[in-house]
């Protein structure tokens, strides 16, 4: 076992306990799957409710070829993180918010869902069972991926007769290969991520399959990710494939309002509160491409991406740059949020849950 040592750049506090860590290279973690020790599985039988789940060794699962999730995409996922504090203890960030969002999504996708308590307790059990995989403070976090899927067999189009709630975890670092350096986005003008009345506001698996084509084309051209516009006017910002977007102009910060086609990000919601607490004027409303191109600073938010500064946006072949390096506002919000998530500053928002 390795012993956790304090990260000098973060603090000179010493750990009050010895923490056993998995034997992996903790420096320079990216965002890829590192298999861990345990996953959590809870099933909801036909016509029943979720009752008792169990931890199993992490590994492959068995599904009937006619499972609802495989045939008709009846599936949702969530994403949240656990951080290691400097004293070695572990903090979850707003797990009840993920529980509530999963319930909303399950309602839209015709699935039963775990109660908030079941969700939070199963997350805690899974993280504790895998605690040696929670990175040392400042090296990253444990990404927690809950799945909810129609696992029972169907052939005709109908809700599946059985559901599985599964949680797996993986230690992660920065989502984008750029790290904290600004990312370069391209605005997609043909393909759309979501339509009014569709499923854009829930975290259903199909929303993410639907953006892979545009994302691959963009990546092949050297862009980090794709920014989508509303499908009616092709004029208002929606979101990036993997995160929400914010536009800064002076003391004003604007982000597209939640209106059925945009994912209600938990980091989005947290950053709105953090920005207001720091004295910024924050607006949730329609934000046009013109405003984006005229912004002082642009940044993205998400559980995986945290707060990622945007260095440039390309629209209809024209590239607008926001300058080198991370902008002052993005930097400020990133540091207030992450210090709170890691337990470095007092959690005045009451967002973290200590294990
Ligand atoms: C997250 O930020 O947790 C997500 O689910 C986005 C995903 C594309 C990694």
Short overview:
Belongs to the class-IV pyridoxal-phosphate-dependent aminotransferase family. GO terms for molecular function: branched-chain-amino-acid transaminase activity. This protein has 355 residues and is an alpha+beta fold.
Overall description:
This protein is α+β, with helices and mostly antiparallel strands and 355 residues long. The protein is 22% helix and 28% strand. It has helices spanning 68-72, 95-108, 116-129, 205-209, 212-220, 266-277, 289-293, 328-341; strands spanning 2-3, 20-21, 38-44, 54-57, 75-77, 80-84, 90-93, 141-150, 163-172, 183-188, 225-229, 237-240, 244-249, 252-256, 281-285, 297-302, 306-315, 318-321, 352-354. The strands form three sheets. Strands 10, 11, 12, 13, 14, 15, 16, 17 and 18 form a nine-stranded mixed sheet that branches. Strands 3, 4, 5, 6, 7, 8, 9 and 19 form an eight-stranded antiparallel sheet that branches. It has a two-stranded antiparallel sheet with strand order 1-2. Helix 2 (95-108) packs across helix 3 (116-129). It is globular. The two termini are 21 Å apart. 2-OXO-4-methylpentanoic acid (COI) binds at residues 79, 208, 242, 302-304.
